[in-house]
Amino acid sequence: MNHDELSSMQPSETIEKQPDYYFLPYITLAHMFHAPKGWSIRNREMSQFVLQYVVDGFAYYPVGDFHYETRRGDLLFHRPQERHSILTVEDQPYVCISIVFHFGTQPFPYDDLFRNRHLLGNFADHPVDDMLSQLVAHYRQPGLPHQIRCQGLLLQIFAEAAQWGETYAARTRSDKPHIPKLVLIKNYLHDHYYEEVRMKELEHVSGLSKNYILALFRKHVGMSPMQYLTWLRVNKAKELAVQSNLSVSEIAERVGYADVHTFGRMFKKKTGLSLSRFCSNMIYS
C-alpha cells in the first residue's frame, strides 16, 4: 500500500496497516513536492492532521475562513475536516514538504500547543527547516529505527513551533532597539553568503560587540551568525538544485565552497541527506 492511500484514510483504518508504529504520532505521509505549472488544490478536506511547509516559492493557502499568503519558511497546520486550498501563482515556483499524521484514538493537546493558530511561524534558516528535511529522508527508509526517528523529529517540530508562538512577541519587545542592527547583519550575510565572512565584519556592520551579536542571534534566530551563514548556503543550494540544471560542483562553488567534497559533507550533516538525494525526494506530480 502506498503512502498516498494511507494519508487519505480515517485514522483508525491506518493503524493495522502500519506495523512499525507502537506509539503516537502515527505518520502516514511525509514527502517533498515540487508543484508543476498550473497546479492547485481546491476545497480539500483531510481526515488527518497536516503540516505544510514552504521550502521555496509562494502560494495562497485559505483554511476555512482564514486566508494566508505563504512564502519560504512558513509552516502551516490544519486539523481534520478543515477545508483548505493551495493556490499557486503562475510566475512563482512552489516547493513544499507535507506531513500527514494522526494520534490514533488518544487525545493530544494541539490547541494548547498552537493556540488555535494555523500559521505556526516562519522557520526559514531555522533548525526546523533541517528537521523537516530529515523527517522526509527517514520516512523514505524502511525499518523501525527510521520510523522512530521520524516520530521524534515530528515531536521536536511541535515543540519548536509552540515555543516560537509563545516567545516571538516577547523577544521582539525586549530587544526592539537592536532589531534594526540584527536586520543589518542578516542582510549582510544574505549579500555575502558565497564569501568567507568573519565576525569582525559583522561587528563593523552593526556597531555591536561580538558577544552581543552572538547573544542577539541565539535569542532571535536560534543559532549563531556563522551557523546562520551555513543555513543560508544550504537553502541557496536547495534553491539552485530545484531551479537550475547546475551540477553539484557548480552549486558548491556558487554557495562559497571551492571543494565539492567539503560542501557535500556539510550539506549531508545539516539536512541528513546528500544534495542528489534531496532532489530525488521531490515529487513532481
Distance between the termini: 18 Å
| Poorly predicted residue ranges | none
How many β strands by DSSP? Answer: 9
Number of domains in the coordinates?
Answer: 2
**CATH superfamily membership of the largest domain:** Regulatory protein AraC
- Quickly give the CATH architecture of the largest domain: Sandwich
Number of helices: 12
Mean pLDDT score = 86
Structural class: alpha+beta
Reported for the largest beta sheet, the result is: 9 strands, mixed
Tertiary shape: globular
Domain HTH araC/xylS-type: 183-281
GO molecular function, one term: sequence-specific DNA binding
Protein name: Helix-turn-helix transcriptional regulator
Keywords: DNA-binding, Transcription, Transcription regulation
